[in-house]
Amino acid sequence: MTLPAKGKSREEIYSEIKEALSRDADWRGGKIWSLVYFAGEDVSDVLRDAYSAAIYTNGLGPGAFKSLKRFEYEVVQTAAGLLGLEGAVGNMTSGGTESILMAVKTARDWSRAEKGISEPEMIAPVTAHPAFYKSAQYLGVKVVPTPIGDDFRADVGAIEAAITPNTVLVIGSAPNYPYGTIDPIPEIAALAQKNNIPCHVDACLGGYLLPFVERLGYEVRPWDFRVPGVSSISADNHKYGFAARGASTIMYRDAAYRRHQFFAYSDWPGGLYGSPTMTGSRPGGAIAAAWAVLNYLGEDGYMRLAKVIMDTTRTLQDGINAIDGLHVLGDPDMSVFPFASDSLDIYAVGDALDTFGWHPDRQQNPASLHLMVTPVHETIVQPFLADLAEAARKVRTGEQAPGGRAAFYGMLEKMPDRGAVRDVIVTTLEKLTSDPNSGLP
Ligand SMILES: Cc1ncc(COP(=O)(O)O)c(C=O)c1O
After folding, report:
1. pLDDT tens readout for residues 379-401
2. CA of 240 to the centre of ligand 1 (A)
3. Of 303, 320, 405, 421, whose CB has the highest number of CB atoms within 10 Å?
4. From 93, 101, 127, 129, mutation site for ligand 1 pocket: most ligand atoms within 8 A of C-beta
5. How do strand 121-125 and strand 142-146 relate by DSSP bridges?
6. How far apart are CA 93 and CA 252, in angstroms?
7. Do 197 and 162 meet the contact criterion of CB atoms below 8 Å apart?
8. pLDDT tens across 318-371, in order?
């Protein structure tokens, strides 16, 4: 594209956008199992109204935009209540990755200031989200990965053995993305506390759902600020908080600790500069929409959606376990889970599902398919299970051969040279961001 010599009409532009969007994955129809958390047309309308009303506002300027200052304060206050500590402090960020980046930076800078640590390390169970590796790379922190147990939860003994005088942060997830299990947070946090090390709980997925799952009467393993030793928690509004994308909260038990998150520069000719999180300008629409949906849904709305999500998850899991050759891995705590097979090539099952229009994510170690359940999936449980049974049958009878994406994923999973696999990923990113006709391998 080059800049059109003469501007197009609003109608023309909108119809081009609608046409392009119509070719995206069918998330409204529940055909994808990640990326979008759709809570219905009414919620969508609320988000759109709030976002567009605040479209020009900028969270960088709380003096000019008292509206955003108030919305952010109230979102953070609400998060504090949901996460089990009324006095918790926090900020809104653009998403889980930025919240995690802030948690790692705060731990690194606090440890440098308070303990003189100059070669920081953080301990991350292998299930921790890649955002921790990204943060570590950006911030010059070494990641020490630790294994998980047979129950797909962090191995506490391995974490204890990995602690050194350079450890600046210990991590647990509630739940982790790959297996949907909540790590043993009380044990991890106790270890951290005993060694005077901060402990971060990544509740990007669970932060705005687990509180309501617990209120519904499910037994939820302890994971929030009610657990002593938990220093910070990331919780994403734009996941199960059902906000518009670009909204997360990073929360801290202690205000003095949180000060290490902030950035200040005093010598710029442009004036004194302070910024609480990574980004400079911050889209006010995302902040206003996150505030709006909390108020629109309220406790009863979130409880209703949590019930739909948990009921749908159970029905899907029972249905998958009833299909010959397939089983859910472990005992997932929430609504995110993998399933695998001891007898079928699970990636080939994934390929067959693709041909039916479903797009489950592929996972490795062990090879599995991954589902992240949202309210929209309530409507497609039976057709999905029927297609999954048919996909499994096709692979069992050899009608669907391992090939295509299945072969590619199978090969990458087994390649011992992980640097070469990272090269494949970077080359793919290069193509995706420079050739509009390129697709995923
Ligand atoms: C457990 C967990 N943490 C962090 C993230 C990163 O969040 P984001 O994609 O909003 O940056 C995700 C994303 O799925 C996640 O599942």
Report:
1. 999 999 999 999 999 999 999 87
2. 11
3. 320
4. 129
5. parallel
6. 14
7. no
8. 999 999 999 999 999 999 999 999 999 999 999 999 999 998 999 988 999 999
Q: Tell how far CA 296 is from the center of its chain.
A: 23
Q: Which token pair is 31?
A: 């055909």
Ligand 1 geometric centre to CA of 298 (Å): 24
- CA–CA separation, 162 vs 128, rounded Å? 15
Handedness of CA 60, 64, 67, 70 (dihedral sign): positive
Is the shortest distance between the CB of 351 and ligand 1 below 6 Å?
no
Q: Which of 159, 171, 157, 142 is nearest to 230 (CA)?
A: 171
Q: Which two tokens stand for residue 307?
A: 């019930």
Contact 236 CB / ligand 1 (< 6 Å):
yes
CA of 177 to the centre of ligand 1 (A): 8
What one-character-per-residue DSSP string does 242-291 give?
-PPSS-EEEEES-HHHHGGG-EEE---TT--EEESSS-SS-BHHHHHHHH
Could you tell me how far CA 2 lies from the centroid of its own chain? 35
Task: Verify whether ligand 1 is closer than 6 Å to residue 210 (CB atom).
Answer: no
Return d(Cα 376, Cα 27) in angstroms, integer.
8
Whose structure tokens read 């220093």?
A: 231
- What does the block give as tokens for 392? 């499994």
